[in-house]
Amino acid sequence: MRRIWNARFSPLLAGGTLRDRMVACLGALVGVLLAALTYREVSPFPTPLLAAPIGASAVLVFAVPASPLAQPWSVVGGNAISLVVGIAVIALLPQEPLAAAPAIALAILAMSLTGCLHPPGGAVALSTVLAAPALTAPDLAAFAAPILINSVLLVALGWAFHRYSGHSYPHRPVPVKWREAPPAPPAGIVMADVDQALADLGETFDVAREDLVLLLARAEAHAARRLGAPAPVAPQPLARA
């Protein structure tokens, strides 16, 4: 039964623990509550049209703060750029059903080119396309304000919150403070090795290259300690190739 449970219901995110999930729940509770209060104060609309994307952003900021998709520029830039893309698309293609697909596709392209890919940005672009035809120009400004303000507030809260959670945010490739790590020198792996391995696999992973180097270094150190061998020593310093 335990094997079936682990196979079917274990977390898919590597490294996630119950403590991490509880910390994420607390952060998201505070972040989304602040977003709701902000929306009530700055938006004239009774229905929080752009609340869903902020909820998705909160999951990334508090549950996976090491993800490149959760970094400050990804959250603020991704949501803002997707908002602009949605407005531009609906101006050129006023029929919402037809505008939805190009809005999301162009939002992905714009976020990728500007280095701020953020999954909730797709929801921002879609929400903008669906809501914009019913709004006047002044309404559109009031519609856009909550997503921009809440994106900034969410990043600020994430920065303050993770000062106490033990995780770095904005993320830096360093071990989590409250987890014990073996005092070993870095592994003999450089960025060029990681880049070549990623090219061999042909996949895109939601983890920074620097974190991959740190992970592999720690894995080698643990393997060396388990086997009773000296920890591997890097033949050259870890640096970008």
From TrEMBL:
Keywords: Membrane, Transmembrane, Transmembrane helix. InterPro entries: HPP, TM_HPP. The keyword Oxidoreductase does not apply. Pfam families: TM_HPP. The chain crosses the membrane at residues 20-37, 49-67, 73-93, 100-120, 140-162. Residues 17-170 form the HPP transmembrane region domain. The keyword Transmembrane helix applies. It comes from the Bacteria. PANTHER family: TRANSMEMBRANE PROTEIN DDB_G0269096-RELATED (PTHR33741). This is HPP transmembrane region domain-containing protein. The lineage of its organism: Bacteria, Pseudomonadati, Pseudomonadota, Alphaproteobacteria, Sphingomonadales.
